[in-house]
Amino acid sequence: MGEWLAHSVSLGIRTACARFRTMSVHDVIVVGGGPAGSTCARFLTRAGLHVAVVDRARFPRVKLCSGWLSPTLWDVLEMSPYDYPGGRWEWLTCHVRYGGEARAIPCHGWFVRRFEFDDFLLRASGAELHFGVSVGEIERDGDGLWSVAGLRARHLVGAGGTHCPVARLCEPPRPMGPVGVQEHEFRADPAAVARTRLGRDGEPELFLHDDLSGYSWNVPKTDWLNVGSGTVDPKGVRAAWQIARASFRAAGHLPSDADAALDAMKGYSYYLYHPQHLRGAARVDADGKGGAYLVGDSLGLAQPITAEGILPATVSGRLLAEAIVAGAPASYPTRLATHPVLADYQRVFRLRETASSLRRRFSHASPLRSTSPSNDLLSRGSRHAVSKGFAWMFSGARLPVPRLIDLALVALDGADWWLGRHRASEGRT
Question: 328: Cβ–Cβ under 8 A, 6 or more apart, which residues?
């Protein structure tokens, strides 16, 4: 009798445990509920996969981000802007100030409040949502299943931002440090916002830093303001914000009673796109049936010049989902590298690096600058080109004639190589 009872209890425990394991097993666990994670979950669940999204926050949650969306993003999401029920500010003009000159440049985009936008995307994903769950240890059992917060799955997606715990598993290369940001979004009197804004409601005011090492912004959203600064060197972001704040204030573009909010800036950091980041996009099992992957800011995909991260987040989330659904998760890095948006980022990255190298070489070769009227005219033309180009990229527009740009990059690389070789020979003589 005792043996039978012990056997029954043991069998009951094993059956309950097996049932628990069966109930808690998903096809995919996504760590992080921002646009990258929710987009990945949406295209996975659409294909019939069982997906769980885990996030330590409870949505809707505050997210520091100006929330600008490009027209391309709606295509990635397979949505119309009019499908989105939250606050949406469409703009057709970007106000750019650089080198002491201000310009109103036609371009197109939208602003949203991330507080609303992220919540909408996540709840529309169709995934099983687990809020208020901090991901500590990530383990893998003998069945080849990842174990996260009591959930198990063969595929594990890291979408938790710069410090995502899944990134520790994939270890993407970080050849460059992160950029730094000081930002705040706060409620303001709509009459004061309307009275002080530079353009129409929702039109961004951008202040490019003189050395082009970052920029600051002032975005009116009816009864909200989003302001901030971003710099390539995180150590310089606080000083950059103080300069920008004084500039916005002197121009009369900030409400007079906003000082308390402007003193409450918050900082964070993240990584801009670098080609080497893609090497850490996926760690796929030998049998190709599972693995760990990174999307969005967890991988470091923000636009190399404007630092916009929502579009590449959604692109990467969708591409990973499509790779998993196709049974080819190992194809994810290649899908990323060849996607038109990321291919443009590769070109922009190369243009930025080559231009920076050439500028350093020319500055060494010509320490004295001409002060002639023709040189001043060239400077004004250059400032105009920089302002227009930045606004154009800010809108998320695709690069024109990509093949021609590729040829130009080859020529620029050759010029950079020749200058470097020439300087080296001068140094030996």
Answer: 288
